[in-house]
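Note to self: keep these together.
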Amino acid sequence: MPGFAVPYNQPSFACTAAASACDDLAGKLEDQIGKLGSLRGDVVSTWQGDGGASLDGAVGRQADALRGAVNSLRAAARTLRAAASEDHH
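Structure:
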């Protein structure tokens, strides 16, 4: 709008946008963890024997890896939000 100066803090905006992207991706990974949990339940109830146990273990390891990624993304989002709240002059 003419006559009105609008303060714009580009670093803060970029940090906030990046934090939001981290949270979005973490949410999508959490959805995948839920799907892996369902798959594990199906494997355990359907596939008996060593093959089933091996597959269950592999699916469990993937879920654990995704949980680690979610934790990292959530921590990054917190750090980015803290950076966005700092004074950038």
